[in-house]
Fold these 3 entries.
Entry 1:
Amino acid sequence: MCAEAAARALLFVISAACAGCGADSADLSPLRLKHGPPIGQLQAEQLRSLSMECENYPTHGSMRGRYEAAYCAEAMAAWADAPLQMVPVQKSPQDGPL
């Protein structure tokens, strides 16, 4: 009787441990979704990184990856509206006139 109870307990533990096996990580909601720092306080590079990370995940309910979906939407909209970052290009003598 004791061996049977131990076997059932072991079976229960194994089945409980395997319950999450094979699940998509996007389906496993974290305890607290990230929604900070405020979008207006992010530097251009931080905003770009956040926007690119958010784009990696489809919207799943109120989350997008480990972030709140609304926070990601705000970040992506802010990055789309951000002014282009201009990078000066040095002209080499071999290039000739433009």
Note: The mean pLDDT is 76.
Entry 2:
Amino acid sequence: MENLNLTDLEKSTLVDVCFQMKEENFSEYQEVYSNQEKGLLGSLIKKGLVYDAFKDMNMGCYMFCLTSKGIDACKKLNISTSHILFFNF
């Protein structure tokens, strides 16, 4: 994996997304409280670490989850993902 080049605030936001993710494609990270938070999430989305599972549903809300690259990044940063339930089909 390439060097992540994350700022401290991006790392903090990545941790928040990780800990609010409960299972594959489901997270309780569903609200954005500030423009700064929105920008940090946008940055993580551009880096391919996070995605909005509700993006194409026109629901007027969010649900931020880790991508597989985001999960790998968490592991590289020693952020536990063991609480997230993944389904293997």
Note: The beta strands are 21-23, 26-27, 50-52, 64-66.
Entry 3:
Amino acid sequence: MMLFKLHGIPPTIRLNVLFLFYSVTLSIELVLSVIFILHIVNPVKHIWTIGFPYLFILPGLTIISPIWGVVSTLLGSANMLKTYSSMNATMIVLNYPLTLLLLWFLKD
């Protein structure tokens, strides 16, 4: 009986678009992280050139952040989503520009 009973008001169309946008950005982040990590690992020499700023400037943040986003989405925890947002903001402000500058400098 509880499975079919409606608890509260169903989400509006605006909220559905917001959830869709969030899931698309999380999926894109996961795919880009996997592709970039494969690019770092494929020739091992890339670990010390482009892998260093991406993986070691903020140790593990680029690997933990997508996993944290998936777990926070599955659990529906507001506090985890807030820390996920903070992790992404830190990566966008610090980690991604340094990695892109090094890629441009090394002509990769």
Note: The two ends are 59 Å apart (CA to CA).
